[in-house]
Design a protein that fits this description.
Layout lengths: L1 H20 L6 H35 L2 E5 L4 E9 L3 E5 L7 E4 L3 E5 L4 E5 L4 E7 L8 E4 L4 E4 L4 E6 L9 E12 L5 E12 L3 E14 L2 E15 L4 E12 L4 E18 L2 E16 L5 E16 L4 E11 L7 E13 L3 E12 L9 E12 L4
Antiparallel strand pairs: 1-2, 1-5, 2-3, 3-4, 6-7, 6-10, 7-8, 8-9, 11-12, 11-22, 12-13, 13-14, 14-15, 15-16, 16-17, 17-18, 18-19, 19-20, 20-21, 21-22
Length: 383
């Protein structure tokens, strides 16, 4: 009874206090309640904003690739390019991508999937892989196994996504200074090259020209090539080509050659190719010293190489011989050597040497002509 009485007395003594707190002015309890509600709303808004940002940025974090080198370095960024021997990684602290050879890596961690096309034209899809047992080789990790490839077995490596037309397109434009055989003079030249290359088809157009006047004598040299090739099984290919050539030194107003032949590819990769071809061709010539149009038939044997010499240096070599069929004993040759140094992603400096010979010209004319050029150029496709 005593406890119950004390409890009742305590409850009753507190009631007047609560009633007094409801007097005029801002209620203290209500003020704290409003502050608490506003703080909770603010905190929820902040957390919601952080959550939205994380959701929006999560794909960027997911796309981060990590390369582990044998020197203990860990590089984090986005894989920009992959070839048979190295991988390029874009990082935040450098403008240019870092290129690292597979022989320097012990592990690759990437969420992206890639497709590797081997020299037998078979596609392998999966994640990139390397290990110490296959140093210098590139691996494709599928669902059940990892397959490793040496650089000689790789044609191309790309991220596994639909290819666009521009992926196989190359366009370059250059200008420079020539030294020509005619009068041993200097002149300016202009050149343009375009090519489209898929796994089976190769289309190419190349045009170079210059002209100058020395003591009212016009010197000129023009060369245009338009070709198409289709790669068959086992790296055989059929090819056709149109070549238009003019030279004041050889008194040629125009030489037109139409080629058709068969060839074999010995090295076939996206950044290197070595091939040999042979066939027959028609030859039509017009000279500046004669009104007669000359026609003949010839055979041809050609070798072509395009590849990297060392880092950023590229070479293109074309050598051809044309034994006469309708004209016994006549032999023509053609040699083109092009060397480029690539820099600043789209630009290059180059040297070009061209030599044409004819041991039996149709009229009295020089049997050879050469052009040596130093040039500066721009390429549409990033190196």
């Amino acid at each position: 009874m005593l406890i119950w009485a004390c409890s009742c007395s305590f409850i009753q003594t507190n009631r007047p206090i609560r009633e007094k707190a409801r007097g005029p002015g801002i209620p203290i309890l209500t003020m704290f309640t409003m502050f608490e509600l506003k703080f909770r709303f603010f905190l929820k808004s902040v957390l919601l904003g952080i959550g939205i940002c994380l959701v929006m940025l999560s794909p960027l974090f997911a796309q981060q690739d990590t390369l582990f080198t044998k020197y203990g370095d860990v590089l984090v960024g986005k894989i920009d390019n992959v070839n048979a021997e190295s991988v390029s990684l874009k990082v935040k602290y450098r403008k240019d991508a870092i290129e690292i050879k597979f022989s320097e890596l012990i592990r690759i961690q990437s969420a992206s999937r890639f497709v590797l096309n081997d020299v037998g034209n078979k596609n392998w899809r999966g994640a990139l892989a390397v290990d110490t047992l296959h140093s210098g080789q590139i691996g494709i990790a599928g669902a059940d196994s990892v397959v490793f490839f040496s650089s000689r077995r790789v044609f191309d490596v790309n991220e596994d996504k639909p290819r666009k037309f521009k992926d196989g397109l190359k366009v370059s434009l250059d200008f420079g200074i020539n030294r020509i055989k005619a009068d041993n003079s200097l002149s300016a030249n202009l050149g343009i090259n375009s090519a489209y290359r898929s796994r089976r088809w190769v289309f190419e157009a190349d045009y170079s020209a210059f002209s100058n006047s020395v003591d009212t004598v016009l010197n000129y040299w023009r060369n245009g090539i338009f070709s198409a090739s289709y790669v068959l099984s086992k790296e055989w290919f059929v090819t056709s080509k149109l070549n238009l050539y003019s030279s004041s030194e050889q008194s040629l107003k125009l030489r037109r050659n139409i080629f058709a032949g068969l060839g074999k590819i010995f090295i076939h990769r996206s950044d290197e190719i070595l091939s040999v071809s042979a066939g027959i061709m028609s030859n039509s010539e017009r000279y500046t010293t004669s009104e007669t149009n000359f026609s003949s038939s010839e055979s041809f044997l050609s070798a072509h190489y395009n590849g990297k010499i060392v880092e950023r240096w590229e070479s293109v070599l074309d050598a051809s011989i044309f034994p006469g069929l309708s004209e016994s004993g006549r032999v023509r040759t053609n040699l083109n050597l092009d060397i480029k140094y690539k820099f600043l992603n789209h630009f290059y400096l180059g040297l070009r040497y061209t030599l044409n010979t004819d041991n039996q010209p149709q009229v009295e004319a020089a049997q050879s002509d050469y052009v040596f050029a130093v040039k500066f150029g721009w390429s549409l496709k990033k190196y």
